[in-house]
Every structure is written in structure tokens, then in C-alpha cells.
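My main concern about presentation is that the manuscript never shows what a single data entry looks like. For the editor and my fellow referees, an illustration may be useful. For illustration, here is how one protein appears when written out as sequence plus C-alpha cells:

***
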Amino acid sequence: MALRWGFVSAGKVCSDFGACLQSLPEEHKIVAVAARDLDRAKEFAKLHDIPQAYQGYDKIAEDPNVDIAYIGVVHNYHYEHALLMLQHGKHVLCEKPLCLTEAQAKGLVAEAKKQNVFFMEGVWSRFFPAYQKIREIIGTGQLGEVKLVIANFGDYALDVERVCTKATAGGAILDKGIYAIQLASMVFGGQKPTSVSSNGYLLDTGVDGISSTVLKYPNNAMAVLNSSIMCDFPNEAFIMGEKKKIKVCFPFWCPTRIEISDAEKIIEVHEFPLPEIKGDFIYTNATGMQYEVAAVGKYIKEGAKESPLMSQNESIVIAGIMDKARHDLGYYYDDEK
């Protein structure tokens, strides 16, 4: 029987994710979508051939035909709606960033454990074949001990209100930087850094426009992570070991190519073609969401409550890193002061 999904939002990311779900019709089915505006929910349902459209997200929680809720609303609503779904016994896949704070992340994880349901932050990067290859290369010791991760994610977005507004939990770290943070976290085994420090500039709206965050780890290892909504970056990442290094080519958060180099030259190239899915996609390499879809379906079928590739504890660690990075810059939510 196909896993039955309910969509909490009818936005852009839901459109791309929905198309990937529907590319695996034997395993997955979207049975309902909800939005604040009923007409928008109906329009989305018609576009994606979804049988039920609701006004109000609580309807997804109450629908007995929904097995798993996909949370695709704006960042500042993640906690509220994910908690509601968990409290109604739904499995939950929540888009990144999982929450606005470490405390919220801990609250959701506790509720998921209480309800004994599957719960994961939707860091789709972790399920790309390129990321699997990165984990494999590091695990074999080919690089030697990893000492430095550098990741850059910057896109000009000062014309996007959601990204520039504190009320919608905007800012470069929450919108872009999380991808750099999750890569460093993966490379260093999901452990909590020994220190986090960030420097940069806030916009007049109070959210971070550009920043550089340094994470320190045991054994003299570190990560330098740059994020921006004020200008474009190359959007590549580098993983440097004592012997060799990996370049995670653009776009590093959903890559199709990695390069392994020694001190002088590229010695290996690995390329991974994306799934071919019909449709008009909005986000870069969005058909790669199919990897995450397939993994979540497998976990739930096997009775797992979380993913070993994106654990609940690691989501808490990442949320804590973002808290410290924001606070270093002077970015506090109104209820944090």
C-alpha cells in the first residue's frame, strides 16, 4: 500500500516535492493538501491531481487518510504545525530549518518519541548519491583525517521579502547557511562543535545579510561557513584532509559532481545524473528530492522512527549552532529578548 501524504502548504517547495512523490506512484500518494486560502489549496490540488483540498492546516492533522505530513510552510510556522501533526500521531517530514531555535527542535523530537512516529528534518542533501560518495570516501580514510570544511552559499535575495524579514525568520543563516552547516556536521559525524563563532552584518530589518561562521571540532579540525543574501557566491564546498581533498561542485547542497584532488591535481571525478522526472521544476536540481522521498518511504515501511543519515539529535545540534551564530551577530527573535 502506498504511503499517504498530506501537504501542509501549497507553496513552491511543495510543488517540486509533490512532483517527486508522484514519480513513485506505487510507493507514494498525495491524498490531501491544505493552505490558509482554500482557493490556493484547490488550485494546487487540481495541478497535482490531489483528491482533497483543505482550508486550515488542522484538517491535515485530523484526516484519518493521512499517514505522513509534509511541512512546507514558512520557517516561523514549522514548529507550530509540525507539533500539531505529531500530536495527532502523524509521521512528519519537516522542511529545513526544522525550527527557529534549539529549544523548539528539542520539543519536537520529544513529542515524536512520545508519539512513537517517524520524524525527520528535510535536509534533502543527505540523500544525494554524491553525499553518499562523500561519506564513503571519508569513511575509507582516503582523505586522511579531515581538518577543514569550507562551504559558501550566497544568493542575492534582498528583493525577497520573506528572506529579509524577522517576522518570517529570514536571514542568510536560516535560509542559506543551514546547508553549509549541515555539510560540516555530516563530515564531522554530527558531533557538537567545541565552539561556534560568527561575524557579519545585519540588515536594517534585523536579520543577517552576510556572515562567516567558524566551527571548531576536536583534533584541531574546523569549518568555515559563509552565507549571504546580499550577493552571489560560487556556492561550492571543499573538504580538506591531511592527504587529499574533495571539491563538492556547484550546487554543493544538491550536487551531481565531486572532484578528489591531491596537492597537485584532480585525480578522481565522480558524476551522478539526476532522476528524470517530467514537469516544470522551480528549484535547482529539484528532481533530486526523489532520493529523499524514496528513503523516507523505506524508513517508514521498515518501522524506523528516524533516519541514520539525518538523525533527530543532529537536527538539535544544528539548531544550536544556528542559535549561537545568530546571537553573535545580534540577531534575536522578539521573544528571545
About this structure: The longest strand covers residues 208-217. The chain has a mean pLDDT of 97. The chain has ten helices and 14 strands. The two ends are 49 Å apart (CA to CA).
